[in-house]
Specification:
By secondary structure, the protein is an all-alpha fold. Helices cover 59% and strands 2% of the residues. Helix 1 (29-48) packs across helix 2 and helix 2 (60-76) packs parallel to helix 5. InterPro entries: Cullin_repeat-like_dom_sf.
C-alpha cells in the first residue's frame, strides 16, 4: 500500500504545523511543510489500515525526494539567524507520534468486548494478539520514519535538543511515546489509563489458562514479555 499524500491529514491536530509563525524563514517553510506532510501521510495510512497490514511505503523516487528534502532542511537550519523556530521539527514529530499512539491505544484496549469477565481467556488472548500486531507495525513504521529522517537525526536533532544533552533517536522517540501513551508508563508513575496493568492481567490469565484452549498462548505471552523488555519494562511470569 502506498502512503497517501496529504488529503487524509486535514482533521488531524498533530499534522497542523506551527510554521505559519512570522519568525519562520520563507525559504525553509516550504521544506518543513513538505516533510511534515509526507511523514504524516505514513502515520495516517498506518492508522487507517488493518493492524496486520504492513506499513505504507513510498516509491524509490518519492523516498529519495523526502530524504533529500530532510537533508536540505538540516543544511538550511544550521545557520543560527535563519528565523526557524527552535526545536520545531522535534516538537512536531513528537506530537505526531503521540497522536498515533493514542489511536493505537484505543484500538488495542477499547474494542474487545466485556472486560469484566476475567475468566474469559479468549478475551485476553485477543487483547495480547492485537497488542503484538499493533506493536510490530509500530516498530516497522518507526524504522521507516527514522530512515527518512536519518540526516536530521545525526545533526539537526542534536542542535534542536542541545549539543550537551542526551538526544534520543527517532526510533527511541517512538519507544518513549509508546511506553507513555499506550502503556501509561510515565516516570512519575502509571497514568489513569494503565495499559501496562491490562497487559499484565492478560498475561497472568493466559499463564494459568488450560493449555488445550490455546496452544499458542506460551509463544504469545513470551512475545509480549520480550516486547515490553525492549521498552525497558520487566514482567515476571
Amino acid at each position: 500500500m502506498k502512503a497517501s499524500r496529504t488529503s487524509a491529514t486535514q482533521d488531524n491536530p498533530a499534522t497542523t504545523s506551527s510554521t505559519s509563525s512570522p519568525t519562520s524563514s520563507a525559504a525553509v517553510l516550504p521544506i518543513i511543510n513538505y516533510i511534515e506532510s509526507e511523514i504524516s501521510s505514513l502515520y495516517v495510512a498506518a492508522e487507517t489500515s488493518d493492524i496486520d497490514e504492513a506499513p505504507p511505503i513510498f516509491s524509490p523516487k518519492a523516498y529519495l525526494e523526502i530524504y533529500t528534502r530532510v537533508h536540505e532542511y538540516d543544511i538550511a537550519t544550521r545557520a543560527q539567524d535563519n528565523g526557524v523556530a527552535d526545536k520545531h521539527l522535534h516538537r512536531w514529530l513528537d506530537s505526531r507520534i503521540r497522536y498515533y499512539c493514542t489511536s493505537m491505544r484505543k484500538r488495542i484496549f477499547d474494542s474487545h468486548g466485556n472486560k469484566t469477565d476475567v475468566t474469559n481467556s479468549s478475551f485476553f488472548r485477543t487483547l495480547l494478539t492485537t497488542y503484538m500486531s499493533c506493536y510490530r507495525k509500530f516498530c516497522r513504521l518507526a524504522t521507516l520514519v527514522g530512515n527518512l529522517l536519518r540526516s536530521w537525526t545525526r545533526h539537526g536533532l542534536r542542535r534542536e535538543k542541545g549539543e550537551n544533552t542526551y538526544v534520543a533517536s527517532v526510533e527511541e522517540m517512538h519507544q518513549i511515546a509508546w511506553r507513555q501513551e499506550v502503556l501509561g508508563n510515565y516516570a512519575r508513575g502509571p497514568s489513569p489509563k494503565d495499559g501496562l496493568k491490562e497487559l499484565k492481567n492478560a498475561i497472568a490469565v493466559l499463564v494459568e489458562a488450560d493449555p488445550e484452549e490455546g496452544e499458542e498462548d506460551p509463544a504469545l505471552v513470551k512475545d509480549v514479555v520480550k516486547s515490553l523488555a525492549v521498552l525497558g519494562i520487566k514482567v515476571e511470569i
